[in-house]
Amino acid sequence: MLCARRLRGLGPPAAAVWRGRAGPGGLGAGRRAREVSTSWSPVGAAFNVKPQGRRLDLFGERRGLFGVPELSAPEGFRIAQENALRKADLLVERVCSMPPGPQTVLIFDELSDSLCRVADLADFVKIAHPEPAFREAAEEACRSIGTMVEKLNTNVELYQSLQKLLADKKLVESLDPETRRVAELFMFDFEISGIHLDKEKRKRAVDLNVKILDLSNTFLVGTNFPNKVEKHLLPEHIHRNFVVTGNHIIIDGLHAEAPDDLVREAAYKIFLYPNAGQLKCLEELLSHRDLLAKLVGYSTYSHRALQGTIAKNPETVMQFLEKLSDRLSERTIKDFEMIRRMKMKLNPQNSELMPWDPPYYSGVIRAERYNIEPSLYCPFFSLGACMEGLNILFTKLLGITLYAEQPAKGEVWCEDVRKLAVVHESEGLLGYIYCDFFQRADKPHQDCHFTIRGGRLKEDGDYQLPVVVLMLNLPHSSRNSPTLLTPGMMENLFHEMGHAMHSMLGRTRYQHVTGTRCPTDFAEVPSILMEYFANDYRVVTQFARHYQTGQSLPKSMVSRLCESKKVCAAADMQLQVFYATLDQIYHGKHPLRTSTTDILRETQEKFYGLPYVPNTAWQLRFSHLVGYGAKYYSYLMSRAVASMVWKECFQQDPFNRAAGERYRREMLAHGGGKEPMLMVQALCQ
């Protein structure tokens, strides 16, 4: 769609059980690519010190979020959205009154860009800004722009201006491959939005899309909402593991790593206890998605959602998941047996394996077998060291350096957000990454990548530099030490930075296909590939240094850590197969033959193997149903592709510059401007 070829935020899959003139980097006039800054500083040091308070500046100009002047206050979102809608009207009028040609596609992309620059930014602010007024203003902007997008996707005159271009064979043949693909993607967006319907049905499609947007936002908020229970209902000795307020205990997560079985069991049963409002919201969301799909000519929502992906259709996805499940089956049974034995050893009175057990006991097995207690590793993985490791990797592989840059007043939403300039050794500044890495109240517990502004070639010949946010939930530094990461946190950091590099290096002419704006089952390939680098001892030994002594992480410890990742890997992957299958069934044939909870129970027993726990509804916490509806399988398919790329290009030498340049040229540079399988074939030869 004109502004909807974007994911809410790209991040790792659900975890084991629940797993005027803008300043530098602002969203106004982009810098020329070769301009450099004297304010850049080394990235590693910047992340191992607390951000310095800015000098008292009573008269300094407040720049606004991301350097957008209007966004110095919540009311600015209304101004930004009104400006975007006004510009959209002018562009629609312009493209509808001109003869078809390559310029048609450029104006469509400019139209998409003008809307996305507000919607994408607001999409991030509405969930991450600490101030409720900003979140509410951003929410309203999202809704307003989203409604406009749905109307444009059913605008017959706008559609006809593109149809005239694609119906002219000579004109189509004169277009370069990227322009032709972008034109076809815009046409595809019209088609799946119901442009072929009569006026009344087109209006119905717009109304359904707006309702789906509202339901998605409501459901997403509900996935993180804590549950509470009266204090006397839980044994007193486990109270200290939770937040206690008055006579109630607040449960805000699964506490999957807690050593006490009773703590994990209580958290699981209470946090996943069904909420009637959230259940109704999910049922309505699935039902409205199905109604929309049928209205525009698809048998299920999954058939509609999978158009244009690597998989193409839900039948292929289910074949992939069933085949993968069959291959995992024996190894998963062995993993569960190993976990069961460990539970029996530590808790002989209660050795039945339950869904809240695998994350904890598989961790115990890894620690015991390979001596990989996280506390042994954390001192070697200071945040600064990990950022320097990424810097070393990108410099050797791609000729890219990350520099810390001091943000302007009002540019960031929290004082601990860091701003990075991404600079190429010969091309200069490529874009900006805002690093929102630290825990704070009301911040979502997801690790995500958000596109704030997509890259594109502007009419004046300048390149509009991409801007993204990486959001993690790391602990703050203490008085005695910098922020120290567990191996899992380090891997997540590498994963998210893979998305960021995809955005920075996607040098497409059109923002509609920039960076991660590509099929969902391909978007995770660069991020999962980065996990391979994070687990390679040749890479890790480049940066893992003890924050006090400077000692390198011994090779034996790196090797043990990498080997430990194989422990219970089949059970972990089987869990992802279960989630992906559940997602396909929910978005398959409607009306659903039974309740979403009954479907959860049946699918869990068939595709995972551990018993369903009565009076729980894990699906109500499955936030990926919003951004990855009918596409959760993408993590597994992307992992298969990333494995091929690693073996073909980097397994022999993870710092091979020629392989890095080929990876950039054949895959990252194209964003979504080329068929994914053509990119994979060109890269893997």
From TrEMBL:
The keyword Transcription does not apply. Residues 255-682 form the Peptidase M3A/M3B catalytic domain. Its cofactor is Zn(2+). The keyword Mitochondrion applies. Its EC number is 3.4.24.59. GO terms for molecular function: metal ion binding; metalloendopeptidase activity. GO terms for cellular component: mitochondrial matrix. GO terms for biological process: proteolysis. Coiled coil: none annotated. It catalyses: Release of an N-terminal octapeptide as second stage of processing of some proteins imported into the mitochondrion. Keywords: Acetylation, Calcium, Cobalt, Hydrolase, Iron, Magnesium, Manganese, Metal-binding, Metalloprotease, Mitochondrion, Protease, Transit peptide, Zinc. Transmembrane segments: none annotated. Its main location: mitochondrion. Pfam families: Peptidase_M3. It is found in: Mitochondrion matrix. It comes from the Eukaryota. Binds 1 zinc ion. Monomer. Belongs to the peptidase M3 family. Cleaves proteins, imported into the mitochondrion, to their mature size. This is Mitochondrial intermediate peptidase.
